[in-house]
Amino acid sequence: MKILVLNGPNINMLGIREPDIYGKQTFGDLLALLESTALEAGVTIEQYQSNHEGDLVDKIQAAYGRFDGIVINPAAYTHTSVAILDALKAVSIPAVEVHISQVDAREPFRQISYPGMYCEKTIQGLGLEGYRQAVLYLKKRYG
Ligand code: CA2
Q1: Number of C-beta neighbours around residue 58 at 10 A
Q2: With a 6 A CB cut-off, is 13 part of the ligand 1 pocket?
Q3: How far apart are CA 133 and CA 57, in angstroms?
Q4: pLDDT tens profile 42-64
Q5: In angstroms, rounded to a whole number, what is the distance separating the alpha carbons of residues 27 and 75?
Q6: Domain boundaries along the sequence of the chain
Q7: 97-120 pLDDT, tens digit each
Q8: Using an 8 Å Cβ cutoff, are 114 and 56 in contact?
Q9: Among this protein's residues, is 99 annotated catalytic?
Q10: Whose CA is closest to atom 10 on ligand 1?
């Protein structure tokens, strides 16, 4: 099983500021977690982070026919991107949305998720563990 893990803008800055919201773990810690999760679940994980909406759309389109599942934290694009929603719908690959923080308990503008309208599950507020849970969910359901 092949899973694509996508991260949106500023996720590469994790651990540098706002540890009260996003924790102290870094993007490097996330990459290590994805490697260990791939071994644990017996899946292949490819990860991609971009600060650019169109790059994320391109990556989702390129996943068509190549990946069995997508784990996506669109970061700030969560709350704005119909383009990412449409790309997910276009490829029709099972997807899980992850948020490091508990977005439900934050500002009103974070209460809407466009990509989340396609994703079959949203995991939030578990820190980096949410990515692991998302991969394990996809493996259990589709692996
Ligand atoms: O909780 C999440 O995972 C978010 O997707 C993170 C986004 C935020 O815009 C979403 O509302 C929720 C932010 C990504 C990281 O932003 C940083 C800000 C300061 C320092 C380091 C990273």
Answers
A1: 14
A2: yes
A3: 24
A4: 999 999 999 999 999 999 999 99
A5: 13
A6: 2-142
A7: 999 999 999 999 999 999 999 999
A8: no
A9: yes
A10: 75
